[in-house]
């Protein structure tokens, strides 16, 4: 029942928010996000990774077609739900100072988004997963369309069509699996696993690509990334945070839950290709990021690079790869949020995001600079920051998988340091520019948002163990089914 | 049957009310009358009643489809108040619409080719007049004329087809024809198949699939917008229902001989209608092409597995009708406020009338097949059945064309949410209620499809 609450509480508030005065909408949204987080933390305390079915819940939804409303959380799901519910209050809080014509609509869409995201991470029925997956697209599309920057209509539309196209392939793949289930067909996840594993290697390959395409577009993995930089750039700050902080994790979650265990032979056959694509993405996006003049765009490309490493790690289907990916998802969510927030703070005050026209912000804003340093160090994966743990595990997994790819993937650390530190140096240090002199230091409100983030960055970096423990059993279970099968085939 | 008589009666009442000058309450009477007619079906769901020596049979299929037609017509009347009230021709228009509904009911409950023909003609002749009911407009006249010429042409094919089928099977009765065809498949004369194809062509005109769709965009765009809404909902349900009865029930045993042709029709319909719709800057015309395209998806489900598709067909038509009504109701108001129905007319609707923008967006998202709205589940059931029947190549085409569909359905959405200032678009409380109700219905049908989808089959 807790799972049900986590999914539908945001929906209830999203509908109820119109009963309040528009001016109070943000408060209502914030409080509701806090309540959701509190419930989630309460569950965190009582989480028993060995008894993961405790939060399962199932009722028939469309019985005539074998569709159930079936949700549940094991360690993997739980970490992502934690990320969603944990980041949401921060995103809402960070938006408090932005002038907004229609606050009720805005926060209703944000909460709908939260509902869909939690739904995606908890669904245990193929059809339900698809519906939540698509539902997440609608609010974010409207957030970007209504509150975005100039030229947003075509850009956000490209984003919409791109991701929709991917997910239609996923739908076809799921439907195909559905028809492979015995008897009266069903979308139940275990039945789909069984059906998928019974397929021949060639069939599994086709299913692999159908599913992978949807996930790869969402993350996005090279060469399906072309929608991403533009969308991140024109989207409003909150939209970008949602997109990069949480939404792209849907892609990894899809890989872990709905791809690896479904078609192990397909993964066996095609993982190398997919890993190579991911690694190309790492190097390619890093090089482009180095040349970016717009800071928001730079973060967007940096995100592609980081995402590439995570997806490569997942596709190695090894325990450390998956564990690293999960921890890195959390870390990336937090860091992306902080980066985009700082970017927004600087750009609204200086009315520019162009790196070269900024310089010497440090003089007027020492606290901002310090926070920024921490976030940057987290992003370039310095030890004792959150970025290090995940990146270390991921690179380790990648090395064991294939040392050449591991070496290439390792470039992310070097190149990441190049573009991040380069941008930092220009914007914060360097010669004092007139635009930069307008950047005053953090306000109290901004400190309230950013200080906890800084603490989290160090906490995860120094003591990641509780988080790793949550997912450990679930990952082991997942891989067990997987490797048993692979062994049988060999 | 009682429903049929009530709706007939409503037609006569509205004609008489002209003479007795009772126009004032007529609109309300008709809406209530239609609701009453729909209510007469309650309890008849599992009863099969036969009339006029089996010429008209109300079985589960007919009852469900007739109720849908009548309900949609009642909802349409609520939205279309401005088309009737205050107009000098209120009574004629009301009567004509009532008679179309009569024709529609006959088309989904016929058990005899003669009744099918009568139904189609009753429906069509009234529609020809309605299409031209905006007498001042050149386009409306053009629409009526075009519709009449093409419609009569199609009727010719239909009649010829019925005659040839009669010649080879010796009966007008659906059950007799069906049995005869099933038991004498090898011995059927060649002209039976000619008749079958003529029937296919005739009805294809009525459901406006490519390449028999040429009249549709012009007629849809030229007619008064509310009549277009009526054509793409009530009339479409009746025509598709008739198509199903003929090709999925009566001629099921020889369906294989036309299925190749129908496949070609589906591919053409999906491609041509969707691609042409992309190039429309007029939203009304775009919705016309979209309405053609939707039939392509319906036929895909129908040809894949007729028996399985019975429930989804009903669901598809019901969801399409609800969404269409929303879209056309808002389009009509925008059009009459701005004087044009181009995309620009929608610019800035969100900032001036968020309610209308919200409902229109839901309708368009549903038409585009985005979950969790009804249109998604409708399309999903088609794709699911088609994959189940191993029509993978058709599914790929359907998916690509529905992506193209997303492209044009989103054009008005993007326009509505641009910040351009625009003229106020006003709805009164009653209209708001109906549109809001329909929107809610579209969402609820998408979330809880089970009851509707399993009502048949």
Top keywords for this entry?
heterodimer; A: 490 residues; mainly alpha; 21 helices; 75% helix; 2% strand; globular; B: 457 residues; 77% helix; 1% strand
What does this structure look like?
The complex is a heterodimer of chains A (490) and B (457). Chain A is an all-alpha fold. In chain A, 75% of the residues lie in helices and 2% in strands. Chain A has helices at residues 2-16, 25-45, 75-94, 103-122, 126-135, 137-147, 152-180, 189-198, 201-218, 228-234, 237-247, 249-259, 264-290, 295-315, 319-350, 361-364, 366-379, 386-401, 403-428, 444-462, 465-489, and strands at residues 57-62, 67-71. A two-stranded antiparallel sheet of chain A has the order 1-2. In chain A, a hairpin with a 4-residue loop joins β1 and β2. Chain B has a two-stranded antiparallel ribbon. The interface between A and B is medium-sized, with 30 and 31 residues.
Write the layout of secondary structure elements.
The complex is a heterodimer of chains A (490) and B (457).
Chain A: H1 2-16, H2 25-45, E1 57-62, E2 67-71, H3 75-94, H4 103-122, H5 126-135, H6 137-147, H7 152-180, H8 189-198, H9 201-218, H10 228-234, H11 237-247, H12 249-259, H13 264-290, H14 295-315, H15 319-350, H16 361-364, H17 366-379, H18 386-401, H19 403-428, H20 444-462, H21 465-489
Helix pairs in contact in A: 1-2, 1-4, 2-3, 2-4, 3-4, 3-11, 3-15, 3-21, 4-5, 4-6, 5-7, 6-7, 7-8, 7-9, 7-10, 9-12, 9-13, 10-14, 11-15, 13-14, 13-19, 14-15, 14-18, 14-19, 15-17, 15-18, 15-20, 15-21, 17-19, 17-20, 18-19, 18-20
Chain B: H1 2-20, H2 26-39, E1 49-51, E2 56-58, H3 60-79, H4 81-84, H5 90-109, H6 113-131, H7 138-169, H8 174-183, H9 190-207, H10 215-222, H11 225-250, H12 255-278, H13 283-304, H14 306-338, H15 349-352, H16 354-368, H17 374-388, H18 392-416, H19 429-447, H20 450-453
Antiparallel strand pairs in B: 1-2
Helix pairs in contact in B: 1-2, 1-5, 2-3, 3-5, 3-11, 3-14, 5-6, 5-11, 6-7, 6-11, 7-9, 7-10, 9-11, 10-11, 10-13, 11-13, 11-14, 12-13, 12-18, 13-14, 13-17, 13-18, 14-16, 14-17, 14-19, 16-18, 16-19, 17-19
């Amino acid at each position: 029942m807790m799972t049900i609450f986590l999914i539908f509480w945001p929906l209830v508030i999203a509908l109820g928010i119109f009963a309040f005065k528009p001016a109070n909408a943000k408060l209502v949204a914030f409080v509701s996000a806090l309540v959701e987080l509190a419930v989630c933390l309460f569950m965190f305390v009582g989480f028993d990774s060995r008894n993961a079915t405790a939060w399962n819940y199932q009722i028939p939804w469309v019985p005539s077609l074998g569709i159930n409303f079936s949700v549940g959380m094991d360690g993997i799901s739980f970490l992502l739900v934690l990320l969603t519910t944990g980041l949401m209050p921060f995103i809402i809080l960070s938006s408090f100072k932005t002038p907004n014509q229609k606050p009720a609509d805005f926060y209703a869409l944000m909460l709908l988004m939260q509902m869909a995201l939690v739904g995606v991470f908890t669904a245990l029925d193929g059809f339900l997963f698809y519906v939540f997956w698509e539902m997440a697209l609608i609010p974010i599309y409207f957030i970007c369309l209504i509150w975005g920057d100039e030229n947003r209509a075509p850009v956000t539309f490209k984003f919409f069509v791109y991701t929709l196209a991917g997910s239609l392939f996923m739908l076809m793949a799921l439907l195909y699996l559905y028809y492979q289930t015995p008897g009266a067909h069903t979308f139940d996840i275990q039945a789909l696993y069984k059906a998928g594993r019974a397929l021949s290697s060639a069939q599994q390959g086709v299913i692999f690509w159908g599913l992978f395409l949807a996930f790869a577009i969402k993350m996005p993995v090279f060469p399906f990334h072309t929608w991403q930089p533009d969308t991140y750039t024109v989207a409003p700050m909150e939209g970008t945070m949602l997109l990069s902080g949480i939404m792209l994790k849907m892609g990894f979650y899809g890989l872990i839950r709905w791809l690896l265990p479904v078609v192990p032979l397909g993964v066996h056959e095609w993982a190398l290709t997919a890993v190579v694509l991911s690694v190309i993405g790492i190097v390619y996006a890093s090089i482009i990021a180095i040349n970016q003049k717009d800071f928001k765009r730079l973060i967007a490309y940096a995100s592609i690079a980081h995402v590439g490493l995570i997806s490569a790690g997942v596709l190695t289907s090894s325990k450390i790869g998956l564990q690293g990916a999960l921890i890195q998802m959390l870390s990336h969510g937090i860091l992306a949020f902080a980066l985009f927030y700082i970017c927004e703070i600087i750009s609204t005050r200086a009315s520019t995001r162009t790196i070269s026209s900024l310089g010497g912000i440090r003089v007027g804003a020492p606290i901002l600079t310090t926070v920024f340093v921490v976030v940057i160090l987290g992003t370039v994966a310095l030890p004792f920051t959150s970025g290090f743990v995940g990146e270390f595990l991921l690179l380790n997994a990648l090395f064991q998988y294939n040392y050449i790819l591991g070496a290439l993937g390792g470039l992310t650390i070097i190149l990441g340091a190049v573009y991040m530190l380069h941008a930092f140096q220009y914007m914060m240090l360097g010669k004092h520019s007139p635009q930069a002199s307008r950047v005053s230091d953090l306000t109290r409100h901004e400190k309230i948002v950013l200080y906890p983030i800084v603490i989290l960055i160090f906490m995860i970096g120094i003591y990641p163990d509780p988080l790793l423990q949550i997912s450990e059993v679930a990952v082991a279970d997942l891989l067990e089914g997987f490797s048993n099968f692979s062994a049988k085939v060999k | 049957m009682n429903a049929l008589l009530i709706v007939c009666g409503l037609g006569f009442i509205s004609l008489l009310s002209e003479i007795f000058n009772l126009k004032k309450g007529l609109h309300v009477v008709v809406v209530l009358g239609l609701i009453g007619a729909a209510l007469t079906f309650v309890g008849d769901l599992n009863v099969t009643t036969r009339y006029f020596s089996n010429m008209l049979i109300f079985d589960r299929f007919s009852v469900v489809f007739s109720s849908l037609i009548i309900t949609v017509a009642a909802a349409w009347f609520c939205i279309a108040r401005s088309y009737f009230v205050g107009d000098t021709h209120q009574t004629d228009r009301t009567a004509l619409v009532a008679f179309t509904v009569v024709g529609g009911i006959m088309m989904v409950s016929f058990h005899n080719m003669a009744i099918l023909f009568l139904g189609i003609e009753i429906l069509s002749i009234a529609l020809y007049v309605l299409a031209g009911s905006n007498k001042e407009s050149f386009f409306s006249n053009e629409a009526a004329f075009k519709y009449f010429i093409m419609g009569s042409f199609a009727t010719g094919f239909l009649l010829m087809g019925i005659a040839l089928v009669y010649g080879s099977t010796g009966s007008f009765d659906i059950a007799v024809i069906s049995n005869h065809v099933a038991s004498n498949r090898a011995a059927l004369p060649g002209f039976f198949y000619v008749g079958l194809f003529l029937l296919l062509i005739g009805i294809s005109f009525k459901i406006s699939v490519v390449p028999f769709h040429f009249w549709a965009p012009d007629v849809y765009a030229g007619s008064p917008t509310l009549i277009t809404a009526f054509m793409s909902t009530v009339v479409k349900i009746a025509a598709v229902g008739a198509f199903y009865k003929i090709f999925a029930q009566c001629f099921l045993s020889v369906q294989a001989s036309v299925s190749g042709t129908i496949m070609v029709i589906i591919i053409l319909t999906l491609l041509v209608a969707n691609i042409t719709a992309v190039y429309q800057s007029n939203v009304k015309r775009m919705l016309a092409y979209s309405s053609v395209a939707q039939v392509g998806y319906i036929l895909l489900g129908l040809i894949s597995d007729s028996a399985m598709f019975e429930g989804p067909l009903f669901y598809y038509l019901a969801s399409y009708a609800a969404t269409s009504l929303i879209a056309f109701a808002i389009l009509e108001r925008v059009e009459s406020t701005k004087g044009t129905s181009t995309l620009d007319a929608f610019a800035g609707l969100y900032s001036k009338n968020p309610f209308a923008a919200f409902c229109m967006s839901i309708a368009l998202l549903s038409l585009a097949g985005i979950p969790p709205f009804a249109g998604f589940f409708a399309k999903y059931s088609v794709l699911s059945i088609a994959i189940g029947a191993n029509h993978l190549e058709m599914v790929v085409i359907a998916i690509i064309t529905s992506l193209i569909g997303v492209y044009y359905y989103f054009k008005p959405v993007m326009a509505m949410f641009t910040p351009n200032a625009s003229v106020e678009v006003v709805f009164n409380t009653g209209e708001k209620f109906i549109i809001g109700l329909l929107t809610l219905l579209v969402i609820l049908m998408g979330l809880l499809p089970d009851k509707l989808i399993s009502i048949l089959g």
